[in-house]
Amino acid sequence: MPSFGKSKPHKYVPFGYKLMITYMVFIILPVIAIGYFSHSMYQDSIRQQTRNNIQGTLIQMKDNIEYKLKDVDRISAMLYGDYSLITQLRHFEKGWESYERTTKILKPKFSIAVNSTGLNIAMYLFLANETLPEVYYGSLDNERPDELEGNYNIYHLKRIEDKPWHSGFPPEQFGETKLWQRVERDMEFGRISLLRRLVDFEKPLELKEIGFMRISVRTEELFQAVDYSKIGNGSALVIKDEYGRVLYQSGTVPITSNESHPGAEYLTIQESVGDQSWQLAAYVPMTVMEQDSKKVRVFIILICFFCLVIFTFAGMFISRYFSTRMNKIVFVLNAFREGDLRKRMGYRGKDEFSQIASALNEMGRNIDQLIEQVYVTQIEKKEAELESLQAQINPHFLYNTLSSISRLAQFGEVDKLQRMVLDLAKFYRLSLNEGRTVIPIRSELEQVQAYMNIQTTKFGDSVSIFYDIEPEIINYVTVKLILQPFIENALEHAWFGNSIHIRVSGKREGANIVFKIIDDGIGMSEELIRQIFDPVEGLNTGYGIRNVNSRIQLHFGTQYGVTIGSRPGIGTTIQIVIPAER
């Protein structure tokens, strides 16, 4: 039986692995996906519920803040709309009447206003009527609003005309113009003030400013309801004005006035407060929101883990069961590939595997018989062709050589005669080679040298040959008689002038050995080269070349063989490729 060469193994994924991967994709991955989406949906539900709870808490805080803002605004509106107060502020009288009006009318009204709220406020009134006396408990520039809580100061309006918070106050819109703003020492004492004009209603088109009021209240008292502990530890509550400046903060998260969000690990919820475009913002750590979901996440992970373990073992069992059956088929196929076509396998059952086994067994028997017939026939045919080629070459070559030896004897050239006889004997010894068809490359080259020594003795300087052989390749093997036929062909058909030069090279290129036979002879046309390799058109041409090519491919494979490159008038290059085998 012939033995086929082993092909280089390729990386592959076993059927069992593919089955296991498919099983995991369609069984295990859905389990993971279900667990993941279940947890995500639960977490989203918890987040939404937490958000709704916090939103409700913020609304309560907002309502509390707005109630207190409206309470302070009510005091300012009480003074703003007091017609009798405005009338008194409009009269310019000096002396005792002015003092008496202040004592009996203005101060009682201001006292009632200050004490009409539950908040501890400090009120400042700036009057345009300078005939009214100032009443205050400390210098305006060094005031301490906390010491004035529950009381009021009266100053002349000129004291604040150059203050930015007064000069930049918006134009009056009849009772609608009012601002909450931090002025003077409010920031230092943690306070904020409501600013509002007092105008003369006698001329409603002019709305002349006759006074200005500032009601200061502690931010801690105003925003008392803003307590981070109501929404969870680690949270923060921030009140910002319309410019994003922080008015009040409860909590320990560092948030600057320019930050709308302290970080991606916080959930931000906002509510608008009052008519001043304030924002009440809650920053809740995601860890607080996910406290309840952690237990559920652990529970879901455990369920998914146990399911994965169960399904994995089930998948391994199923995969191993089918892999064992498939490996039997692969084992027989590998045996077929190695040339052992007598391997057989048996399967019980009536499934597809038993059908495959039966088909493979039958195929092995048929292929074995066919290969036996075809292989033996091809070997016998090629051996007959080789013998025929040798029979064609040797008698003609022997006749010419003996004729040359006879002439040398006639002329008494004993040395040349002796060399030619020795080379002739060496050539035939290597040609016979005890009947072996595979020989070392060293022997193939020695045969070429013996042949060329005979030819150079005959033709003299008209023929020259150059060898360029890498020493490492001479111990590899080749089918015999693959170089000499091409050299002989060049000497018979390639003469172009009175001389011819031949170059024989051999080197290793990767896993192959490449020979090149190059001559500077007459060359060949592309049509002639095509005919040489065509067994029909080249019936009377290139028999030796086709013989060498078919013997190489028969022994080593169709990826090896002979190629020809030629240009008429320039020369021909024969390339022979064989595998590097020892």
TrEMBL record:
Entry's transmembrane regions: 20-38, 296-318
Thylakoid listed as a keyword: no
Annotated EC: 2.7.13.3
Main localization (coarse): membrane
UniProt-annotated location(s): Cell membrane
Alphabetized UniProt keyword annotations: ATP-binding, Cell membrane, Kinase, Membrane, Nucleotide-binding, Phosphoprotein, Transferase, Transmembrane, Transmembrane helix, Two-component regulatory system
Catalytic activity: ATP + protein L-histidine = ADP + protein N-phospho-L-histidine
Any one GO MF annotation of this record: ATP binding
Database matches in Gene3D superfamilies: 6.10.340.10, Histidine kinase-like ATPase, C-terminal domain
Gene Ontology CC: plasma membrane
Presence of the UniProt keyword DNA repair in the record: no
HAMP domain mapped to chain residues: 320-372
Record membrane topology: Multi-pass membrane protein
Record domain Histidine kinase: where: 482-582
PANTHER family reported in the protein's UniProt record: SENSOR HISTIDINE KINASE YPDA (PTHR34220:SF7)
This protein's name: histidine kinase
Lineage: Bacteria, Bacillati, Bacillota, Bacilli, Bacillales
